[in-house]
């Protein structure tokens, strides 16, 4: 069967990728598959570029983990997705429980976003053949703001919103844009894959940001699915609502979790679900690529976060391909 990044590119997408992180890299059998450029053309660090890793103390920056993932992407010819700059979770205590005024928190966000994006500016380059010529574009993409919305469509009341209202979003975007003018800047969120108040709110948020002149280039659809709950038509419609505004979209954290123990019928359904997601991306020209939230059940975040659920990835814990693999290949 065909390798997945090769299939994605042959189908006109920019990449097929995977999340990974430094604790997994000593697993040499895992690393061998991850490194295969025909299989994966893009990497997202699962944790090591988050605020608590990058700036654990105010003005103390630690890029060690993120740098390792960037180095792997460079040596194996992959694109990078930076993940993420401003998020309510995995925040260090000094941010979460600080006593902020709008002025001081603005300065904290500026310093964090500027320093991190500047550090990684221009690390990864990608060649795009346009109709008339071949141009070199920076294809650094950043999840600048992660999960700003509640499922009911209101803004999440985190420390950023409490102090700065929704203005923190444009602030983070402007700062990232100034630090790396060629990077694609995203807002990334979950439960955008269905008809719901949340996708309505995201469309409204994008419209407001565009009116305000904010540098916003894409929306990430995380794609953490429950077995049998993928609707290809809703996913396609929601992605089209975003691309109609002139933005790109990406599936940024795909997995399909199963109530354990998984049966053969479950694995068959999972194959169909993965195929449906890839087909929806294929149906939307502005959907640039698909990223797994790690490729194997051996290193998936699902069992520890959703007790009783698992087997969410296309490779099993022994690094063998599941039916889901063929579902992805067929989707492209
Ligand atoms: C997850 C990581 O995979 C876990 O290792 C960590 O303990 C918690 O965060 N949405 C996101 C990701 O945007 O950053 C999250 O990653 C999964 C949900």
From TrEMBL:
Originating species: Paxillus rubicundulus Ve08.2h10
- Catalytic residues identified in the record: 253
Provide the taxonomic classification: Eukaryota, Fungi, Dikarya, Basidiomycota, Agaricomycotina
Report the family membership: Belongs to the glycosyl hydrolase 10 (cellulase F) family.
Q: Name one GO molecular function term.
A: endo-1,4-beta-xylanase activity
List the catalytic activities from the record. Endohydrolysis of (1->4)-beta-D-xylosidic linkages in xylans
Q: Which InterPro entries match?
A: GH (IPR017853), GH10 (IPR044846), GH10_AS (IPR031158), GH10_dom (IPR001000)
Q: Where is it located?
A: Secreted
> Which SUPFAM superfamilies does the protein's record reference?
(Trans)glycosidases
Protein name (record): Beta-xylanase
EC number(s)?
A: 3.2.1.8
Keyword set includes Signal = yes
Q: Where is the GH10 domain?
A: 1-331
Q: In which pathway does it act?
A: Glycan degradation; xylan degradation
Q: Name one GO biological process term.
A: xylan catabolic process
PANTHER family for the chain:
ENDO-1,4-BETA-XYLANASE (PTHR31490:SF35), GLYCOSYL HYDROLASE (PTHR31490)
Q: Which GO terms describe its cellular component?
A: extracellular region
Q: What is its main location?
A: secreted
């Amino acid at each position: 069967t065909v390798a997945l990044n090769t299939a994605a590119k042959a189908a006109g997408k920019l990449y097929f990728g995977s999340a990974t992180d430094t604790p997994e890299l000593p697993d040499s059998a895992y690393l061998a598959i991850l490194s295969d450029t025909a299989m994966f053309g893009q990497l997202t660090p699962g944790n090591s570029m988050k605020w608590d890793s990058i700036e654990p103390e105010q003005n103390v920056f630690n890029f060690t983990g993120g740098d390792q993932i960037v180095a792997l992407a460079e040596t194996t010819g992959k694109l990078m997705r930076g993940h993420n700059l401003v998020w309510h979770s995995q925040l260090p205590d000094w941010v979460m429980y600080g006593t902020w005024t709008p002025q001081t928190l603005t300065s904290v966000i500026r310093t964090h976003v500027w320093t991190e994006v500047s550090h990684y500016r221009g690390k990864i380059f990608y060649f795009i053949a346009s109709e008339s010529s071949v141009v070199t574009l920076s294809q650094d993409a950043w999840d600048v703001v992660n999960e700003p919305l509640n499922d009911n469509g209101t803004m999440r009341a985190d420390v950023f919103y409490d102090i700065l209202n929704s203005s923190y979003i444009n602030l983070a975007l402007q700062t990232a844009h100034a630090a790396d003018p060629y990077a694609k800047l995203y807002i990334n969120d979950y439960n955008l894959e269905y008809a719901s108040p949340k996708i309505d709110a995201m469309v409204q948020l994008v419209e407001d940001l565009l009116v305000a002149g904010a540098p916003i280039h894409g929306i990430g659809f995380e794609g953490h699915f429950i077995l049998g709950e993928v609707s290809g038509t809703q996913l396609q419609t929601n992605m089209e609502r975003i691309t109609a505004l002139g933005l790109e979209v990406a599936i940024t954290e795909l997995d399909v979790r199963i109530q354990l123990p998984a049966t053969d019928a479950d694995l068959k359904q999972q194959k169909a679900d993965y195929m449906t997601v890839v087909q929806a991306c294929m149906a939307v020209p502005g959907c640039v690529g698909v990223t797994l939230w790690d490729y194997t059940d051996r290193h998936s975040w699902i069992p520890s976060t959703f007790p009783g659920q698992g087997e969410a990835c296309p490779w099993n814990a022994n690094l063998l391909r599941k039916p889901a693999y063929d579902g992805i290949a067929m989707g492209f």
